[in-house]
């Protein structure tokens, strides 16, 4: 009996011990679960913080809903096989830089500018597997020079402009700053001393490479944390912001004037010579807006074409007298519209591939066109005929006619910029080599003086070239090598469009990194970076009358800025 009681007590003690151990295990599991929840919460908080920082710097976002932009359309379904040199430049929706364009394969290499006959275009430009995909091409040539500029705007220091930079209402906007009406000279002129502190001994000993590296760092404005910048080095609107380079004196201000929604990707923007109108090219149509009011004043669409399928207008340009608008599209046809009657005055055919770029000569008679068929062609609208054909080894992405009508320049997938005599067709410059671009050239623009040229490339750089063309070409002389006098580095992705303001005070650029930058052509230093578009900035254009510029983007919007 006594033995039985001992056994029962032992069994009871054992059970109690096991219960205590189970309770300890349960508490341990509960603690581990709590730790896991804390770790998960911290992880999600870190992800959200990083995403906010990325969005603030203009980087790719997880979803376009962060920006309140339009819903993204499905990928354009039409392609032309090897002629589709630029499919997918903004591939992959908002996260990758473009609505409705084929997402590229992962871990791509930099584009190498393959010839049009190759089965695959440059990485990031190819269609995705499946049905042929197609993207509008970023082409831009600067508008004619004008009498007055207006970009050298002094900004009160050190405070930012009042009002937080809210977008201005439609209707005549007031001046961005009190000094708008009397433009100050651009930095570098004798009237505006450049803020260059005396170099230290250490700075004097820096190698050229180190100096270049420091310049690049100072120009990479996308790396600046906007939350950490003082008020005088940033400006924010409701859906855009600008950051100003802390390493140089701020002499510009910026405001959004008009936001112009479209039904598709905006491939190109261009002003009329009097600055009163801006034209845009998108899927199947070109539009003309009044700059002051933002109102749509003309919708140009060829009604004779089938209504199904895509047909992107990849380049637009006004005639110097403002009576005509030329459009170039992927159906290989150049249409010259009489704006007053909304009718097609001329049609030029002959290109074998998509037309990516157009420019009107200042004489109002000649139009230059560049195409994936590896040719630049000049057309006479008075005789309604082709007057010159220039052939190269690779697809032509961009063309521009010099202000004096003497030369035509073109950029190509072969990384080169070429300049020809527009009358004889003689090649006078070939800008390439060690100092040249390392990837396809997507945009060229003459300086208003005509003796310089800027080019933008998929190598993420802009280059300024000093042309060495003689007054008269000697018979039999070969092309001269223009001198690269400056390289502008700071964009985080492909440079898709470049231009110069009317007096050459600023170089303006748009990129697949969704940013717009203004650069000092004298020093190569970036003055500001503007982020507002939710997709690649395909086209930038300054107004020939100064003080205003336009941007076109894969986010299906064009914007007019002061």
From TrEMBL:
Name the residue ranges with Gly residues bias. Answer: 89-100
Q: Which PROSITE patterns match?
A: WD_REPEATS_1, WD_REPEATS_2, WD_REPEATS_REGION
Boundaries of each Transcriptional repressor Tup1 N-terminal domain copy?
Answer: 10-57
Task: List the keywords (alphabetical).
Answer: Repeat, Repressor, Transcription, Transcription regulation, WD repeat
Query: InterPro entries, per this entry?
Result: Tscrpt_rep_Tup1_N, WD40/YVTN_repeat-like_dom_sf, WD40_PAC1, WD40_repeat_CS, WD40_repeat_dom_sf, WD40_rpt
| WD repeat positions | 313-347, 348-389, 396-430, 434-475, 488-520, 530-562
- Domain of life (superkingdom): Eukaryota
- Region of interest (Disordered), ranges: 50-212
The UniProt regions of compositional bias labelled Low complexity, in chain numbering, are 58-70, 201-212
* Signal peptide (from-to): none
- Biased-composition ranges, Pro residues, are 113-141, 187-200
Gene Ontology cellular component terms for the protein in this record: U4/U6 x U5 tri-snRNP complex
Q: What are the recorded GO MF terms, alphabetically?
A: U4 snRNA binding; U6 snRNA binding
Q: Which GO terms describe its biological process?
A: mRNA splicing, via spliceosome
Q: Name one Pfam family in it.
A: Tup_N
Enumerate the CDD domains for this protein: WD40
- Its protein name is WD40 repeat-like protein
């Amino acid at each position: 009996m006594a033995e039985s009681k001992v056994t029962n007590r032992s069994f009871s003690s054992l059970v109690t011990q096991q219960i205590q151990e189970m309770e300890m295990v349960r508490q341990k599991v509960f603690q581990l679960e709590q730790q896991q929840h804390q770790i998960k919460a911290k992880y999600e908080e870190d992800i959200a913080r990083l995403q906010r920082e990325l969005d603030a710097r203009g980087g790719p976002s997880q979803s376009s809903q962060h920006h309140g932009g339009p819903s993204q359309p499905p990928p354009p379904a039409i392609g032309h096989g090897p002629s589709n040199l630029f499919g997918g430049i903004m591939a992959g929706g908002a996260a990758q830089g473009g609505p409705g364009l084929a997402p590229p394969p992962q871990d791509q290499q930099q584009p190498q500018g393959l010839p049009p006959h190759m089965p695959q275009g440059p990485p990031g430009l190819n269609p995705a597997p499946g049905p042929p995909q197609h993207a509008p091409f970023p082409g831009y040539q600067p508008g004619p020079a004008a009498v007055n500029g207006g970009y050298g705007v002094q900004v009160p220091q050190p405070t930012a402009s009042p009002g937080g930079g809210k977008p201005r209402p439609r209707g005549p906007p007031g001046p961005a700053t009190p000094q708008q009406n009397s433009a100050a000279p651009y930095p570098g002129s004798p009237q505006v001393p450049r803020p260059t502190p005396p170099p230290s001994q250490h700075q004097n000993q820096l190698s050229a490479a180190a100096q270049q590296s420091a310049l690049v760092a100072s120009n990479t404005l996308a790396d600046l944390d906007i939350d950490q910048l003082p008020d005088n080095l940033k400006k924010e609107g409701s859906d855009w912001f600008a950051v100003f380079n802390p390493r140089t004196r701020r002499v510009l201000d910026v405001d959004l004037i008009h936001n112009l929604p479209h039904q598709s990707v905006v491939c190109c923007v261009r002003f009329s010579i009097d600055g009163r109108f801006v034209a845009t090219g998108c899927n199947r149509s070109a539009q003309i807006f009044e700059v002051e009011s933002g109102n749509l004043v003309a919708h140009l669409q060829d009604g004779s074409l089938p209504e199904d399928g895509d047909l992107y207008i990849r380049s637009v340009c006004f005639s110097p007298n403002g009576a005509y608008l030329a459009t170039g599209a992927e159906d290989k046809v150049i249409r010259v519209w009489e704006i007053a009657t909304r009718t097609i005055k001329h049609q030029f055919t002959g290109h074998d591939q998509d037309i990516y770029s157009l420019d009107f000569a200042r004489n109002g008679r000649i139009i230059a066109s560049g195409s994936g068929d590896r040719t630049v062609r000049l057309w006479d609208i008075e005789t309604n005929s082709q007057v010159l054909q220039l052939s190269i080894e690779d697809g032509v992405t961009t063309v521009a006619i010099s202000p004096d009508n003497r030369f035509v320049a073109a950029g190509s997938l072969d990384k080169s910029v070429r300049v020809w005599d527009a009358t004889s067709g003689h090649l006078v410059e070939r800008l390439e080599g060690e100092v040249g671009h390392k990837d396809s050239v997507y945009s060229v623009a003459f300086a208003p003086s005509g003796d310089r040229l800027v080019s933008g490339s998929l190598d993420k750089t802009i280059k300024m070239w000093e042309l060495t063309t003689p007054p008269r070409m000697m018979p039999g002389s070969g092309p001269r090598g223009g001198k690269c006098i400056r390289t502008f580095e700071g964009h985080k992705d492909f440079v898709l469009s470049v231009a110069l303001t009317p007096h050459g005070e600023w170089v303006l650029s748009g990129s697949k990194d969704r940013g717009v930058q203004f650069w000092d052509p004298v020093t190569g230093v970036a003055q500001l970076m503007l982020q507002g578009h939710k997709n690649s900035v395909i086209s930038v254009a300054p107004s020939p009358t100064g003080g205003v510029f336009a941007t076109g983007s894969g986010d299906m919007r064009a914007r007019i800025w002061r």
